[in-house]
Amino acid sequence: MRLIIYSMLGLLILIQYPLWLGRGGWFKVYELDQQLKAQEDKNRALILRNAKLAGDVADLKDGTRAIEERARSEHGLIKENEYFVQILPSSKPVTKTD
Description:
Layout: H1 2-21, H2 26-62, H3 65-75
């Protein structure tokens, strides 16, 4: 009777091994699921970035406001009859006096 019990227990362990530790086992599925979630997060971030870039491209193609804004911020250009004012931070710390 013991031989039958031990052989059944051994068969049960052999059957369970591929389920837990095999190529398509639970641990591998869990690991792949985590990788899938990480990749989906990256894809969402890239989709948002692409949408923003597409909006910038459309704005640069269609309007002059974006071109003017870039010329002002990146190249320091100003329009005719405008004054450029730059405010620099103070080198001394501001202290309160009573």
